[in-house]
Structure to design on (177 residues):
């Protein structure tokens, strides 16, 4: 965002600290990034809705469960891995349960805890959907980038992700809400 036209004049008594406005170049990068993320998410959502009747976030949950030992994860861990709120996860798992793709199990050593478990039917849906999804990802991202650009994108996104996940107590992260 650029400085608004009505910004206080330098030296005025009530002058708040000036924000670090984005340069024109930073503004172009930021807008390109946001447009790319929005369009990519929409592209993948449409592909998964068409091929499997599920949004991208649900597919991601099925993948996380498929990769877990015994195809099961505690709900809190699944929320953390998916980077979503516990409320959003609970809603998503309820929909996946209704489809017969996931079931919940109580945690034997924690009365309040629950596991999300990928069912055989859910695993089959994932296996059938994965080839089309991988092709959509490959076409939208990897086929457009050189190996060097792919490596740079991975490094950049890792740095951004790490910076947005503080480790100190009281951090405001989606899976803690």
């Amino acid at each position: 965002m650029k400085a608004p036209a009505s910004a206080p004049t330098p030296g005025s008594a009530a002058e708040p600290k000036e924000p670090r406005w984005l340069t024109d170049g930073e503004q172009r990068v930021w807008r390109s990034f946001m447009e790319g993320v929005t369009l990519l998410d929409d592209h993948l959502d449409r592909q998964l809705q068409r091929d499997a009747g599920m949004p991208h976030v649900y597919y991601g949950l099925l993948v996380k469960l498929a990769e877990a030992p015994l195809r099961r994860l505690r709900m809190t861990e699944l929320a953390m891995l998916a980077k979503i709120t516990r409320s959003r996860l609970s809603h998503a798992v309820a929909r996946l349960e209704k489809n017969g793709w996931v079931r919940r199990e109580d945690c034997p050593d924690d009365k309040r805890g629950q596991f999300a478990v990928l069912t055989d039917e859910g695993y089959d849906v994932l296996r059938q959907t994965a080839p089309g999804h991988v092709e959509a990802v490959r076409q939208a991202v990897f086929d457009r980038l050189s190996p060097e650009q792919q490596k740079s994108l991975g490094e950049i996104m890792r740095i951004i992700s790490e910076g947005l996940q503080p480790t100190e107590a009281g951090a405001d992260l989606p899976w803690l809400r």
Summary: The chain has six helices and three strands. Residues 155 and 161 are 10 Å apart (CA to CA).
